[in-house]
Write a structure and sequence with these properties.
There is one protein chain. This protein has 184 residues and is mainly beta. Helices cover 12% and strands 57% of the residues. The chain contains 2 helices and 12 strands. A 4-stranded antiparallel sheet has the order 1-2-3-4, with no helix packed on it. A hairpin with a 2-residue loop joins strand 9 and strand 10. The N and C termini lie far apart (56 Å).
Length: 184
């Protein structure tokens, strides 16, 4: 009897907790850096690690955040010829103390990870983002929450010291519809 209770309790607890953590590694090859960027949860520290490894020089750098990471993408966001690291992070800010999804952009500068732009917010609350590159440069496309049921797709580009809103591509979308249109 006690074994059955323990098994049921164990099953219930494990099914109620999600022990999956975001982890991703992306190769980078541009005129200034050849290697990879990796984000992973360091359970022992209860922090996320964002690291780079330059396969040509053998140098690496690592930064940590105590906040959850939900996405990582790369692209030349500020048009300087170097690949930037875009991290989706869930954290409060001094002006908005609620845990929300935010977009942080880091640059790789002489084999070091340096902050380029740390957003406190976009036009609306962020849900997902994509980094799109074409002849016209790099843009960030987002799914943002309009209300509890509807979402919009917005587009941003880099201007002098940060991301600038360009336009709303679609609005009043259900989440699944917004996801299917994000990369189009």
């Amino acid at each position: 009897m006690s074994t059955t209770i323990i098994l049921v309790a164990s099953f219930y607890i494990s099914s109620c907790t999600d022990n999956t953590y975001f982890s991703k590694s992306i190769p980078i090859r541009d005129a200034y850096f050849t290697g990879k960027v990796t984000v992973e949860k360091i359970r022992k520290l209860d922090k996320y690690s964002i690291s780079i490894f330059d396969s040509l020089t053998g140098r690496s750098d690592r930064i940590y955040t105590p906040y959850d990471v939900f996405e990582m993408k790369t692209g030349d966001v500020n048009h300087d010829g170097r690949t930037d690291i875009c991290i989706g992070i869930i954290k409060p800010t001094p002006f908005d103390p609620v845990l929300k999804k935010r977009l942080f952009i880091f640059q790789i500068d002489r084999d070091y990870i340096r902050p380029l732009w740390l957003s406190s917010r976009l036009v609306r609350p962020l849900e997902e983002f994509a980094v799109l590159s074409n002849e016209g440069g790099c843009r960030i496309r987002t799914i943002e929450r309009e209300n509890t049921d509807l979402f919009c797709i917005n587009e941003y580009k880099w201007e002098s010291f940060g991301m600038t809103f360009i336009k709303t591509l679609n609005d009043s979308l259900h989440y699944a519809d917004a996801q299917s249109l994000l990369l189009k």
